[in-house]
Write a structure and sequence with these properties.
Chain lengths: ~350, ~270
């Protein structure tokens, strides 16, 4: 199954009540799949007039207490940033999927990881964070739909799955795991006000500075909890590692192969793959900085996540970067060659 | 008066004291609808918003649909509508009310869903969301407050500003050769097959208020039929930004606004 289709099927299995989307390559299969399948399950699917409209439809549906979702690719996700900021401000749970393509601008339809900053550092206006999940396989594109919806409900916060054009389009085996939807209190939702309760309203507007700051502090408290409880990452070959690849998503897949080649050459290298890009595994990287001689962040961009690696390592060991852009992907051999050059350089200095 | 305790909203200046009347001596002939929150509003004297809020809430009270009604507040002067209407509401981003309403109504088709939007919100930044919601025939009510200016940001030119009308961003009067003519939203939208009921009303006289209320009653009733979108455009008084007294503003509607925006039904459903 294609990654995009696995994600769509998982949405149905996760009890997604409504999907709102707009066609854009390389993820139009999601809307097509759900346009075909959702009505069979009595769910709502809608092709909106724009990504601006679809994210605001998600706002309305999520505010009414339903599981709502949208997906798009980079330029479309840019259009959604206003809505995402409102959703975060109003604390609405929903799942947004970005099948990242290379940019800026219209860019290309080939895979990229240039939306890292936009995803983890804000994107829209104001102080907010999304929980950001980075799948590295078709299986994870399915699994993270369940996880994403659950985390969104748990924290009343938007969750972003940051995939890319390769994982969205590639075909792999996928197993849909049995899933039970956790019971969640949504008594805050706008379902119509009975006489027995005060009215519910969904808003991100707090005109008095004191109230606004209180709201900001409440959000920060939530983000702190998320940082404490939801950091996820995968480690491979780190036990004896002298060097470390740091890579997520598609780059991590390529780095796995590069790691095998490097180890055959006798270079003891491991891989740390952040699964949550927010919250980021700063602590584990800080620990590994005491063990390894150098880290190499490999990304499909001009060097974005590497800034977080450097924050974590805080100058204890060299943190290097290797990236390709424009939809180009490095070969494992290319990465190993770069790694060897860096090792020689740091050895000489 | 409702006795329910509310957290004071941001805009609350004071809680209005309960009316002083002795039930044994006086007959109650008028009361604020129970579906209104009992706080003072932030609107300027002579503004149309407070009156239209009340009319909508009177209809909700009379139809006994408080439990089934969800409103969408816009960005603009009526951004705090949810502080005053005692129903479940969502505050939308600027212009996106019809998209938000679509998200709600699609999932809860049996609820009454309405948006409340100004001319900047609906006719400028939100024209796409509005047009497509109506074209889909979403079973929602759009209450479109047209006062020909951006009120909240204090009087800039709107898509509905009259030709030659002075605003802070058209200081020499709106030049239609540069900015185009004011958009007649209701006439435009009535062309769409999804529009079920389209009317333009005002609230600058007792008769106009009665007609607007009737239109609102119709629109809420029609929503049960699932036949399409109802659009009620209301020409609103904006004395503050028109630099007029409330009385002058009411006159301005009758003498000037109606020339561009004639009042009355534009599309009426047949056979209902």
């Amino acid at each position: 199954m294609k990654g995009n289709e696995a994600m769509a099927e998982a949405a149905i299995l996760a009890g997604c009540d409504a999907y709102f989307g707009y066609p854009i390559t390389p993820q139009s299969e999601v809307l097509e799949y759900l346009a075909r399948e959702m009505p069979k399950h009595n769910r709502i699917v809608m092709q909106a007039e724009s990504e601006v409209a679809s994210i605001n439809m998600v706002y309305g549906a999520a505010g009414a207490g339903f599981r709502a979702m949208t997906s798009s690719s980079s330029p479309g996700i840019s259009l959604m940033q206003e809505g995402i900021s409102y959703i975060a401000g109003a604390e609405l749970p929903c799942l947004i999927v970005n099948v990242n393509r290379a940019g800026p601008g219209l860019g290309t339809i080939q895979p990229g990881q240039g939306d890292y900053f936009q995803s983890v550092k804000g994107g829209g206006h104001g102080d907010y964070k999304m929980i950001v999940l980075a799948p590295a396989s078709v299986q994870e594109m399915a699994d993270f739909v369940y996880l994403g919806f659950d985390l969104a409900d748990k924290y009343r916060n938007p969750v972003l799955m940051l995939s890319d054009g390769a994982i969205g389009q590639m075909m792999e085996k996928v197993q849909f795991k049995p899933y039970t939807r956790p019971a969640v209190d949504k008594s805050w939702a706008t379902t119509g006000k009975p006489k027995t309760r005060n009215r519910n309203y969904i808003t991100s507007l707090f005109i008095q500075p004191e109230r606004m700051e209180q709201h900001n502090l409440k959000l920060e408290e939530k983000f702190k909890k998320i940082r404490e409880n939801e950091v996820r990452f995968e480690e491979i070959n780190t036990a004896d590692a002298e060097y470390l690849f740091v890579a997520y998503g598609l780059s991590a897949r390529i780095c796995q192969k590069a790691m095998d080649i490097a180890r055959e050459k006798g270079i003891k290298i491991g891989l740390l793959r952040p699964i949550t890009l927010y919250p980021y595994p700063y602590k584990r990287l800080e620990e590994l900085a005491a063990q390894v001689k150098m880290m190499l962040s490999v990304e499909l961009n001009s060097g974005q996540m590497v800034e977080d690696v450097r924050l974590a390592v805080n100058g204890k060991v060299p943190v290097e970067f290797y990236g390709r852009m424009g939809g180009m992907m490095p070969t494992p051999e290319e990465i190993v060659h770069h790694l060897e050059t860096l090792i020689q350089y740091h050895h000489a200095n | 008066m409702p006795t329910e305790e509310h957290v004071l909203p941001d805009t609350a200046l004071d809680v209005i004291a309960p009316a002083c009347h002795d039930e044994e001596e006086y007959e109650m002939v008028y009361h604020k609808p129970s579906t209104m929150v009992n706080v003072a509003m932030h609107y300027c004297p002579g503004c149309a918003h407070s009156l239209v809020h009340k009319l909508i809430m009177e209809v909700v009270e009379e139809m006994d649909i408080q439990e089934k009604t969800i409103g969408i507040a816009p960005v603009g002067c009526s951004v705090f509508a949810y502080e005053y209407m005692d129903i479940d509401m969502q505050e939308a981003a600027h212009g996106r009310a019809c998209a938000v309403a679509t998200g709600i109504k699609k999932l809860m088709p049996d609820k009454y869903v309405f948006t409340y939007q100004g001319d900047g919100d609906l006719a400028a930044i939100g024209i796409a969301e509005t047009l497509h919601a109506i074209n889909r025939g979403e079973n929602i009510l759009i209450v479109f407050m047209n006062n020909a200016v951006y009120g909240m940001t204090s009087g800039q030119m709107a898509p509905t500003t009259l030709a030659g009308m002075h605003t802070t961003t058209s200081p020499d009067g709106r030049d239609v050769s540069y900015y185009g003519a004011p958009i007649k939203v209701s006439e435009l939208m009535a062309n769409l097959p999804g529009a079920f009921y389209v009317t333009r009303q005002a609230v600058n006289s007792a008769n106009a208020v009665r007609r607007t209320k009737k239109a609102l009653q119709n629109a809420f009733k029609y929503q049960q039929l699932h036949k399409g979108t109802c659009l009620i455009e209301i020409i609103g008084n904006c004395p503050s930004n028109w630099k007029m007294t409330p009385v002058e503003a009411s006159k301005f509607i009758d003498e000037e606004m109606v020339k561009t925006f004639p009042l009355g039904d534009i599309k009426v459903p047949k056979g209902v």
